[in-house]
Amino acid sequence: MLTQLPNLLTLSRIFAIPLLVGTFYLDSPLGNWLGLGILAFAGITDFLDGYVARAWSQQSRLGTFLDPIADKLLVSALLLMLVATGRIPGLAVLPAVVILCREILVSGLREFLAGVDVGMPVTRLARWKTTLQILALGFLIVDAAGPDFGPLSTTDIGVIGLWGAALLTLITGYDYLRAGLRHIDTTSGTGSSATGEPGSGS
């Protein structure tokens, strides 16, 4: 199962993370553009693994498990490196924190819901969020090595995109949290009646 093409594409996205991190230690502009190329490769594999899995009827529980993990590892590592190297400047760190916290929140919800055999499908708005997020991170990777777009620099566009992605992150995060809490309440109620003990919460 691990050697199926969709899973190999997902794994390649995970293996690309240390390469992407390594580009931050290369001189500009080589490191910037090479990093963008690796991010573009990761984005293409993110699309292809799901497409191939559906087209070839190779959808699996392993792929369902690996795909969101690969995405969150990539985004988290990239955000940390961009902040550490100053490519996310000033208050733009705030949307980066929002995005990172949302990734942790959704991961926790998915882990809980998987334990009670409840799926949490990706919404269309979440896909738009992911697309905007990757585009913003791409501009921030290029940073000063990129051209200006009128009065806006490449970094300015990346920062604007990051704020937009953070807004969508809050909206989709709230939607996921609301759906997750609904299942948690149902599960807690079932567990309490089955054991005769009050359900515990945290």
Please, could you describe this protein's structure?
- By secondary structure, the chain is mainly alpha-helical.
- The protein has a single domain (5-192), classed as Four Helix Bundle (Hemerythrin (Met), subunit A) (Up-down Bundle).
- Helices cover 76% and strands 0% of the residues.
- The protein has six helices and no strands.
- The chain has helices at residues 5-23, 30-55, 61-84, 93-115, 124-142, 154-195.
- α4 (93-115) runs parallel beside α6.
- The longest helix has 42 residues, at 154-195.
- It starts with a helix and ends in a 7-residue tail after the last helix.
- The model is unreliable at 191-202 (pLDDT under 50).
Short description:
It is built from six helices and no strands.
Using DSSP, what is the number of strands?
Answer: 0
Instruction: Give the count of structural domains.
Output: 1
Question: Taking Cα atoms only, what radius of gyration do you get, to the nearest Å?
Answer: 19 Å
Biggest pleated-sheet summary: none
Low-confidence segments, given as residue ranges, are 191-202
The DSSP helix count reads 6
Global geometry: globular
Helix percentage: over 70%
CATH superfamily: CDP-alcohol phosphotransferase transmembrane (TM) domain
Specify the CATH class. Answer: Mainly Alpha
Fraction in beta strands: under 5%
CATH topology: Four Helix Bundle (Hemerythrin (Met), subunit A)
Give the H and E element order: HHHHHH
**Based on the structure given, which CATH architecture is correct?**
Up-down Bundle
Termini distance? Answer: 37 Å
Give the overall pLDDT as a whole number. 84
Structural class: mainly alpha
